[in-house]
Structures are given as structure tokens and as C-alpha cells.
UniProtKB/TrEMBL annotation:
InterPro entries reported in the protein's UniProt record: Carb-bd_dom_fam9
Gene3D superfamilies named in the record: 2.60.40.1190
Sample GO molecular function, one term: carbohydrate binding
Protein name: Carbohydrate-binding domain-containing protein
Organism: Mucilaginibacter corticis
Domain Carbohydrate-binding residues, every copy: 25-209
Classification via Pfam families: CBM9_2
Superkingdom: Bacteria
GO biological-process terms attached to the record: carbohydrate catabolic process
Length: 210
């Protein structure tokens, strides 16, 4: 059974402190470890809300190997310590994938499954407000980092979105690090696939904007 959760609305008067609001929101766990032979299992959670103008999303990550080599918009950030958000407004036929490494370098694309996808223009991806925080490693060598994202509706250029209230969208949330010392793939909603592939909208869960 696919996962689902209710995404809460934040009124304008509370937007000034939305990062702390997301700290206090109920968190979803990205807890499906996929295609793993080493058992390495970072701890990843996220919280999400929405406003009159966009989506707010915050990831909370604890992992052993924090790596960021890609610094330009639409670089291949999935090779670094990376979190991802895939969202469809048409029941999975087409979807946006937004990806961010631990220093906040963004990547965005849209379309149906590979290879029928197109990168979002850099000037569109740059509209996403990104704030990152890396916390020092603990005694066991694990580092915590957080990334807060403000994604305006204008990023969804292939859809005419002026409000999400009362809608349901298909989505999935991921953590990966293809070229880190211990490559890993985690998903919020489970994926049944023999090979590493996040581009499987049939395995998206559901987000209800209440």
C-alpha cells in the first residue's frame, strides 16, 4: 500500500519563521533502503507544508560521508550527498524531479519516464529558495545536515498552479549518493525494481494538501 500524508497550510503571518515551523511539523521518514549490498543506512526525515505561493520542504539527514563536488545549477548532484523530491500534478504521467546536494546546488527536470525528460531552465531552478546547515560530525563519524527549500509555484512551469488547497498529488522523496564512499539509495515510498531507478512514478505515494 502506497504511503500518504497530509501537507499542512502555513498562513502568510507565519511565513517569517517557516524554517522553525517545519522543525515542529510532523516528519516523514525516508526508510526504504534499496539496491544495497553494504547495509549502509543513513537516517533521513523530512517535513513539508505549503503556502499561497509555493511548497516548503525541509530534509533532516544524518550520514557518514558528506560530499559535495557539484556547484553549478543543474549539475549532476545525485552523485553527491543528495536529497530529491519528485512531484506529479497529473497522476504520474509527467512529473518534476528536484534534486539538491548538501551545499544546496539544485537540479530540476520535467517529463515522463527516462529518457523523455527535459531539464528545467536554470533561471527557473534559481527561483527556489535554498538554505543549508551542516552540523559537525559526532563521535561515531556521522554528520548531520539540513536543507530548507522554498519552492514557488512558478517553478512548475508546465502547470498552471495558483493554489494547492484541497488537491492531491503523487510524489516520492529520496536520499542518494551515487559517488560517495558507500553509494546508497533510499526512498519514502517503496520501489520494486531490480536496478537503481527513482524514475518510476507507479511507485509514488500521495500528498494531500489540506
Amino acid at each position: 500500500m502506497a504511503k500518504q500524508f497530509d501537507c499542512q497550510f502555513i498562513p502568510a503571518e507565519k511565513l517569517a519563521g517557516y524554517a522553525s515551523f517545519l522543525d515542529d511539523c510532523s516528519k516523514q521518514v525516508i526508510d526504504n533502503l534499496l539496491w544495497s549490498s553494504n547495509g549502509y543506512f543513513p537516517t533521513v526525515k523530512f517535513s513539508m507544508a505549503y503556502t499561497d505561493h509555493g511548497i516548503l520542504l525541509k530534509y533532516f539527514v544524518k550520514e557518514k560521508y558528506v560530499m559535495a563536488r557539484h556547484t553549478q545549477v543543474n549539475d549532476l548532484v545525485y552523485k553527491d550527498s543528495c536529497v530529491e523530491f519528485f512531484l506529479s500534478f497529473d497522476n504520474g504521467s509527467n512529473y518534476y524531479n528536484l534534486e539538491f546536494n548538501c551545499i544546496g546546488t539544485p537540479y530540476g527536470a520535467y517529463g515522463s519516464v527516462k529518457p523523455y525528460r527535459a531539464e528545467l531552465p536554470a533561471n527557473v531552478v534559481k527561483q527556489i529558495k535554498i538554505d543549508t546547515q551542516v552540523i559537525n560530525a559526532d563521535d561515531e563519524g556521522f554528520t548531520e545536515w539540513e536543507i530548507t527549500l522554498g519552492i514557488p509555484f512558478s517553478v512548475f512551469i508546465y502547470d498552471d498552479i495558483d493554489s494547492l488547497k484541497g488537491t492531491e498529488c503523487k510524489a516520492n522523496f529520496y536520499k542518494c549518493g551515487d559517488e560517495t564512499p558507500e553509494p546508497h539509495y533510499l526512498s519514502w515510498n517503496n520501489i520494486l525494481s531490480d536496478e537503481p531507478n527513482f524514475h518510476v512514478p507507479e511507485f509514488f505515494g500521495m500528498v494531500k494538501f489540506v
